[in-house]
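Please annotate this fold before class:
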Amino acid sequence: MEMFSPARSSDSENYLEIIIPNSSIPHFSPLPNGPTTSLSIPIIFPPTISETQTEDGCSESNKTPRAETQLSYSVVPLLPPARSQTDNRNSENCEITPTDPSISTSPRRTIRTAIFNHLTEFLKLKSSNSPKFSHSKKISIQSFFSTAKDLIEIIERKQFPLQMLLKATNNFSEDHKIGKGCFGSVYGATLDGGQEVAIKRQGSARAFLIELKALFHLNHKNAACLVGFCEDGNEYALVYEYMKNGTLHDRLHELQSTPLMSSWTARIKVALDIARGIEYLHVYAVPQIIHRNIKTSNILLDATWTAKVFDFCLSEKGPMDFKSHNLDCVAGTIGYMDPEYFNLQQLTTKIDVYSFGVVLLEMLSAYKALHKNENGEQRLIVDFIVPFIAQDQIHRVLDPRVPPPTPVERKAVAHAGSLAVACVSLKGRDRPSMTEIVNNLMRVWVQVIGG
């Protein structure tokens, strides 16, 4: 029974979920001649930056095309993304040729590298200066949900007694742990009556309430379904429907063969599902929801390989005017975080668009969002993949574990690659909306299944 594959140790995880408040850390200017922003970085999760166990296929000889012409898209990820250094197909080491050193570096690359190094150095010190999250005042469901309508809806949801969850998970034992989310772990369980569920045990009352408030309004096939919740003393848990095929991250970076590995058509369908889920949050959910932590490990796959957006503990209610507003802090995962959002600290839907673009690049190439090149240096997926796509050479970086695309699939993959590049444009205004993304992927999907 697996919602997603058993949680790896912190030694094998290289993605960091962070919150960056608007105050008190060494000053630096993230943009050339731009205003200096004061930042402080308490780490939410996980504990350390560590060596990543790479697990993906790679092409035989990949050299990044020379950037002789100005790219049509302005693409600069702020913080590194990733692919593994071992080929899971045969468990042999697989060399990944680093970016051509002869390509001239731009100020933006220097900025990105400087910021990443700054964060990395800060994170190394966190073990001795780890922030403590405390709640001096009890936060309850009644105090968090402000209106009578909200309270009625919450009360109508199924509230599970703590003892039932403890029994189903053998007191939240490691044997039942199947993954991690923001502020807590996820456990697989079978409740009385035979219902299979995934129980997300939250370590933060506020994160629990934020996610609960976001979830009980949602009703879409591409958003994770909340079965119920538990609030008992200092124990907080969310009970989700069980996802048989786990996370997109684990299915992309595993050895065993799955439908996701069998064709590009299957991957395009999953990409369309994800886009529809995010579009629902941005356009149809009331209130509008901005996820802020879209990544492959937050995309779940059910028994029919339908993708669902998961983990809303960093989500924010969208601005009333559907434009933007400033935040007290920046939150997200290194490698998927929008660089404009990091710098300006403004909440817009384009935050999720950027992250979706990284997810799409990961699905096409099987490189992880944050990975190391053959020299052991951290590298962003957009740095490595986008130049190939911009020069119409996407075939050189496609996941080699998937059978070669058919003529129709080849066009579809090229279109998906161009869409991903547009999504990771440096400026949010240059990125498409999620509705435009859905419409584009829908046209691609229709062509593929019709071809």
Summary: The radius of gyration is 21 Å. The chain has two domains: 1-135+245-451, 141-241. The domain at 141-241 is CATH 3.30.200.20 (Phosphorylase Kinase; domain 1). DSSP finds 13 helices and 19 strands in the chain.
